[in-house]
Write a structure and sequence with these properties.
Elements lengths: L1 H21 L2 E15 L5 E2 L16 E17 L2 E13 L23 H4 L1 E12 L2 E9 L15 E11 L2 E9 L15 E14 L2 E14 L14 E16 L2 E17 L8 E16 L2 E10 L9 E2 L18 H6 L5 H4 L7 E3 L4 E2 L2 E13 L2 E12 L28 E15 L2 E12 L11 E2 L2 E11 L1
Parallel strand pairs: 13-15
Antiparallel strand pairs: 1-3, 1-23, 2-22, 3-4, 4-5, 5-6, 6-7, 7-8, 8-9, 9-10, 10-11, 11-12, 12-13, 13-14, 14-18, 16-17, 18-19, 19-20, 20-21, 21-23
């Protein structure tokens, strides 16, 4: 009998403690993605010539793999106007690949997971933030996306998230935002005990205007990074302390006019990447970059035609103590199946990795969301939707480097007057043409299946500075199952 009363009282206590939770409205959303690739020649090389640095580059082996990811977002409505949001990714990995042995060995220098991260293969929470409405606006605080703005161009919400405080005030079609972001990785690669003073923050203000068939906005941002080191207290070590200040201006618009859809975005950045504490022995590194994107789509019945233009300024190897590279296209922006494709680059390797990774820094689609950079890209496409469930599309894209890339970027500026890098005698800026064909079918409203074929007619830009390097085209087959809920 005693056990009975203990059990009964325990149940009553649990019910009493859980009673407030029963009032919480919980909404789940997310996606499950499975994508397979078969790629012919990601190195874009043929034979085994020797590069100027002595490296031997052989023909890239063909790739064949399948990756997956479960993404789950939960919104807890605790009270009217008060919400807690969480998001995690689970079992994000290549099918059949060996699991990572040690955490956090899968982290790269930017602080997010590489393809072999043990945490990404298990459960990784990315977003946790509270949103609450007040008489003076809506506040959000916690870990949330830090780059989502305007169009998909320039965004990397797949991995670019972190501590953020945001205030938003809506007045009819107008909205005003104030945002404070904290960068991840406060130690900057050096032991915390060596840091005298360090802070990494972004401060943003934005205006939004929404109307029935479109929106426009303007984002202004100031980013600072103060990184002091122990060099001043230890003359035997170089002084690596610096201050970084960057200003960003980002206008965009998206609008529908009858059967015509237009969108565009421009990102201009300026400032100083490095202003060294030990200034007499290191050059100040100036920063100025421009990125631009525009697209138009005309729909007539089941047929749509359109075009897109992408420009991301490259770093001029002829300038001293200045970086001119614009903001890359980002992980959310995938103009092609091969060039500049985030998922493919992340799970495979940078395109033309012998040249692109080592020399251009992944301008044509580096790993982990570098995105397309140092580029002029011109694309035309046509699509047909014979039924509401089927969408077929053919696109042709021409890609051209903006600047012949630096073989090295000298952020230290140790010797005044020395160039930040040398482009050597690059053979060409011509990246090539890419033709893509995709067909997407909605099996259910929440379940779609895509098949695609891409062919890159590789240009001589992949020769880098070596005229003896033989370039070979690349092609791939891919299919993707996406369940959204």
């Amino acid at each position: 009998m005693r056990k009975f009363w203990i059990v009964l009282l325990s149940i009553g206590l649990l019910v009493a403690l859980a009673a407030p939770v029963f009032a919480v409205d919980v909404k789940f959303s997310g996606s499950y993605v499975i994508q397979g690739y078969m790629e012919s020649n990601r190195n874009i090389t043929d034979g085994s010539p020797v590069l100027p640095n002595g490296a031997v580059v052989g023909q890239g082996p063909s790739d064949s793999f399948t990756w997956q990811r479960l993404r789950m977002q939960t919104d807890f409505t605790v009270a009217e106007g008060l919400t807690l949001t969480t998001r995690f990714d689970a079992m994000e990995k290549v099918w059949g690949a060996a699991r990572s042995a040690v955490y956090p060995a899968g982290y790269d220098t930017n602080g997010y997971q590489t393809t072999g991260s043990a945490e990404a293969e298990n459960i990784k929470f990315q977003h946790v933030y509270a949103t609450f409405k007040t008489a003076i606006g809506t506040f959000s605080a916690g870990y949330m996306p830090q780059t989502a703005w305007g169009t998909a161009f320039g965004d990397s919400s797949d991995y670019a998230y972190g501590p953020r405080l945001r205030w938003r005030l809506d007045s009819g079609p107008l909205a005003f935002l104030l945002i404070w972001d904290k960068y991840e990785g406060q130690n900057g690669g050096y032991p915390a005990g060596l840091q005298v003073d360090q802070s990494k923050d972004k401060y943003s203000a934005a205006f939004l205007y929404n109307w029935g068939k479109g929106s426009a906005g303007l984002l202004g941002q100031y980013a600072k990074d103060t990184n002091s080191s122990a060099g001043l207290s230890n003359p035997g070590n170089p002084d690596l302390g610096y201050k970084k200040e960057v200003y960003l201006l980002d206008p965009y618009f998206k609008a529908t006019f009858g059967n015509v859809y237009l969108e565009a975005e421009v990102i201009y950045v300026t400032g100083k990447l490095r202003e060294w504490e030990n200034a007499p022995y290191r050059n100040t590194i100036e920063y100025s970059g421009l990125s631009a994107y525009a697209a138009a789509i005309v729909t007539v019945g089941p047929v749509y035609v359109g075009g897109a233009f992408v420009y991301v300024s490259g770093d001029d190897a002829g300038t001293t103590n200045k970086i001119e590279a614009g903001i890359p296209g980002g992980a959310d922006f995938n103009p092609c199946l091969i060039a500049g494709n985030y998922d493919l680059s992340r799970w495979s390797a940078p395109l033309g990795q012998a040249i692109n990774s080592a020399v251009t820094g992944g301008a044509l689609g580096g790993t982990n969301g570098v995105g397309i950079a140092d580029i002029f890209a011109y694309q035309v496409f046509v699509g047909v939707k014979p039924t509401p469930k089927l969408d077929t599309k053919v696109s042709l894209t021409y890609l051209l480097l903006d600047k012949t890339p630096n073989t090295a970027t000298d952020y230290t500026g140790v010797t005044p007057g020395v160039n930040n890098g040398s482009d050597g005698a690059w053979i060409s800026k011509n990246v090539g043409w890419e033709a893509d064909i995709t067909a997407t079918y909605k099996i259910y409203d929440n379940l779609s299946y895509m098949v695609g074929f891409g062919y890159l007619f590789a240009g001589d830009a992949f020769k880098g500075v070596n005229p003896n390097l033989t370039v070979r085209d690349d092609y791939l087959l891919t299919h993707k199952l996406t369940l959204s809920f």
